[in-house]
Specification:
about 400 residues; mainly alpha; Lysozyme; Membrane-bound Lytic Murein Transglycosylase D, Chain A; 2 domains; two-stranded antiparallel ribbon; 6 strands; Lysozyme-like_dom_sf; Transglycosylase SLT domain-containing protein
Length: about 400
């Protein structure tokens, strides 16, 4: 049973056609995805466990959140968005799904580990999927692709939650340089993945997202050839009719299997972690560079927490214009976020009116000048900021001015 997009997409522009050409070229050399589970259930490898207000203001409340008498968690919202649970599969297709259900249930600790790893991201990804009126099952693609590890890298070069290959990411506009990899940035890569799935579905498959998922994994060229071959044999050319590479043959069954388990976890004896219905992070738009160490001091947030939320920052520094958005924990104070967004020059002051806590270095500044301005010695300023060479001071750098 196929799924056609509910909204009628506008005709692809010339720019989209160029992008699709680039994507086809990228897919010809490598597959777009890599999984942790191998090409068949029995050959699959186990996933490693990983530990896992201010709201994302651009997210609108969904109608069921306004009508329900009891607040829902992220899992309930995800289940509400499922659209494929009622599809009627052939006995052969259902057997392929059931085989993966059995496989996952052999290692429930892996399900627990992956779902814990999904904690920061699941509510936000689910909201982005449902905003597009897409099947909620697509929010679980990172389960199949990367075990919900935003820093995942495959031996073939795919990276991030959505496991984009370099050339595919390039074609979708995901910036890569020495400071930043957009494939690892959950915000940008999620948008790119959903755009890619919808664009392929409209371009090649008349809105059929199951075929688009196959193309996401194997490349549109591979799927198109298999589709034409099936149609010549008198078949409809749907996903379940196609003869594809083994990994792609297992791709949709795996996705439907984990969706089935999450839909009724009590039936399968699976315990899911508590995940709040709202995103676990806030977004700060920046037009200046900042290091995670600087942001950690200003926001009074552990640096490792910022690093976990911002895996795309390869050297721990947000360098505009490569990246403009920093993710921070949802409970960070709004005033402090505004200070960070403004470059740190609206610095907090203590109640008694003493010196500010931080200073943003400006062009022409020197350590001695800054130190004397705030009644510090240059040596003390260097110690507070772990500066080894005074001449390494750079405009835009955020300095802490006290032990507070």
């Amino acid at each position: 049973m196929t799924y056609r997009t509910i909204r009628q997409r506008f005709l692809l522009s010339a720019g989209s056609t160029v992008i699709m050409s680039l994507l086809l070229a990228a897919a010809a050399n490598s597959q777009a995805s890599t999984t942790d589970y191998g090409s068949s259930p029995r050959a699959a490898s186990s996933a490693n466990a990983a530990p896992g207000s201010n709201r994302d203001t651009d997210v609108q409340m969904h109608f069921w959140e306004q009508l329900t008498l009891e607040p829902k968690d992220a899992w309930s919202q995800l289940r509400d968005s499922f659209q494929w649970r009622e599809q009627s599969l052939s006995a052969k297709a259902q057997a392929r799904v059931d085989e993966w259900i059995d496989y996952y249930l052999e290692s429930p600790e892996n399900i627990a580990a992956i779902t814990r790893r999904a904690t920061p991201w699941l509510a936000w990804i689910t909201q982005k999927v449902t905003e597009r009126r897409l099947p909620g099952e697509l929010a679980l693609i990172p389960f199949v692709e990367s075990s919900f590890d935003p820093g995942a890298r495959s031996h073939r070069g795919a990276a991030g939650l959505w496991q984009f290959m370099p050339r595919t990411g390039d074609a979708l506009g995901l910036v890569r340089n020495g400071h930043y990899d957009g494939r690892l940035d959950v915000i940008t890569s999620t948008k790119a993945a959903l755009d890619y799935l919808e664009m392929q579905a409209d371009q090649w498959y008349e809105g059929d997202l199951e075929l688009s998922l196959a193309a996401y994994n194997a490349g549109a060229g591979t799927v198109n050839k298999a589709k034409r071959r099936a149609e010549r044999q008198g078949l409809k050319g749907e996903y379940w009719d196609l003869s594809l590479p083994q990994e792609t043959m297992q791709y949709l069954p795996k996705l439907l299997a984990i969706a089935t388990i999450i839909d009724t976890p009590e039936r399968y004896g699976v315990s899911l972690p508590d995940i709040h219905s709202e995103p676990a992070f806030a977004k700060v738009k920046l037009d200046h560079s900042v290091t995670l160490a600087e942001a950690s001091r200003l926001l009074e947030v552990d640096r490792s927490a910022l690093a976990e939320l911002n895996p795309g920052l390869l050297n721990g520094t947000l360098n505009a214009p490569s990246a403009q958005t920093l993710l921070v924990p949802e409970d960070v104070d709004q005033q402090v976020l505004a200070e960070l967004s403004n470059g740190g020059n609206d610095r907090r002051t203590v109640a008694d009116g003493s010196a500010p806590a931080t200073y943003r270095v400006e062009s022409g500044d020197s350590l001695s000048v800054i130190a004397s301005r705030y009644d510090l010695s240059a040596q003390e300023l260097m110690r507070l900021n772990a500066i080894e060479r005074p001449e390494a001071l750079q405009a835009g750098q955020l300095l802490t001015l006290s032990e507070r």
